[in-house]
Amino acid sequence: DASALWLFNTPGPMKIVNNEIASSGITVMIGAAGYLTGVPPTDVEFRRNRVRADSSTFNGKNTMEWKGGERYWVAGNIFEDDAETGQNNSIQISTQPAESSGDPYIQDLTFEYNLIRRVKSIVGTNGIGFGESQVTLHRVAIRHNYAYDTIYGNGDAFIIDNGADQVTHDHNTFRNNAGQNWLRDAGPPVL
Known about the structure:
Layout: E1 5-7, E2 14-17, E3 20-23, E4 28-30, E5 42-47, E6 50-53, E7 64-66, E8 69-75, E9 78-80, E10 89-93, H1 98-101, E11 106-112, E12 115-119, E13 121-126, E14 137-143, E15 146-150, E16 158-161, E17 165-170, E18 173-175, E19 183-185
Parallel strand pairs: 1-4, 2-5, 3-6, 4-7, 5-8, 6-9, 7-10, 8-11, 9-12, 10-13, 11-14, 12-15, 13-16, 14-17, 15-18, 16-19
């Protein structure tokens, strides 16, 4: 994968503000490497950035992925221009198994006031990471976002896979051109 920005092995805080970020792979990746136990990405502020795929070479990866860490504030960004083929989501929030990422959890993530356009599904959340047996995704707020032109794939706005603990969708506006679902819960509830 070719990523424009990949954060791991850093405890934070990190502030990524007012940038143009483009890549032919996963444009922004947080976690997902074999980072050190106890050193997950923490206290990340990601605001007022334009994040897009390089359409001339894009291989269909997600625009932004979180694979571990805690206390994220993602606000006022523009996410745009996914490829027609490839992974299902523009933004993916899921965890990695313990053996590959040290601290296999995501918690306290706020995703708000973002503009998302010309993408496949908008936000996908996965409550149980690959190879895990318990919920590793906790306290996610997705609110006050505006999305339009979901022009590829099934066009589902928000996807919840394998349950999660306290995922809130609040006051998001979604204009869909392709599919029919605002929210698709693709996994059984996890108690």
